[in-house]
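Renewal narrative, Specific Aim 1. Our central claim is that a sequence can be written position by position from structural information alone. The example that follows is taken directly from our test logs and has not been curated for this report. It begins with the structure tokens describing the chain, in the order in which they were read.
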């Protein structure tokens, strides 16, 4: 199966500004940031979209939120960040490898567009 763009970042075939990495996840700056801080937190395992998450992925997906906490601590952000995961094109998903958007550094409006 051909690697998707995020798998090429995982394998370091494509460069990325990596903020955090462990055995099962990696986090890097978004190439087209929508806020002063915009980081993508992804599992190394290929899961195309949130709706494809299976019961056996529970721990893995939970881990992405723990990584978000690690990043918030690392960047000393105690408040005012948003975690978003888009499912499908209508929700704005453009890369089909699940990723948690970590957005911060400006006032974030609600509801999102
Ligand atoms: P989605 O629209 O699927 O929720 O989010 C995909 C995100 O990946 C977008 O915010 C987009 O800017 C980012 N992105 C797409 N290609 C690359 C890339 O090659 N490198 C990095 N760092 N981010 C990317």
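The sequence written for that structure reads:
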């Amino acid at each position: 199966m051909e690697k998707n763009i995020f798998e090429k970042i995982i394998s370091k075939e494509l460069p990325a500004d990596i903020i955090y990495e462990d055995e099962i996840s990696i986090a890097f700056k978004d190439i087209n940031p929508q806020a002063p801080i915009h980081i993508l937190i992804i599992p190394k395992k290929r899961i195309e979209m949130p709706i494809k998450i299976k019961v056996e992925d529970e721990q893995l997906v939970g881990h992405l939120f723990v990584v978000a906490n690690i990043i918030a601590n690392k960047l000393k952000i105690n408040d005012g960040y948003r975690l978003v995961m888009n499912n499908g094109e209508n929700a704005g998903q453009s890369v089909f490898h699940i990723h948690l958007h970590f957005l911060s550094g400006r006032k974030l409006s609600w509801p999102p567009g």
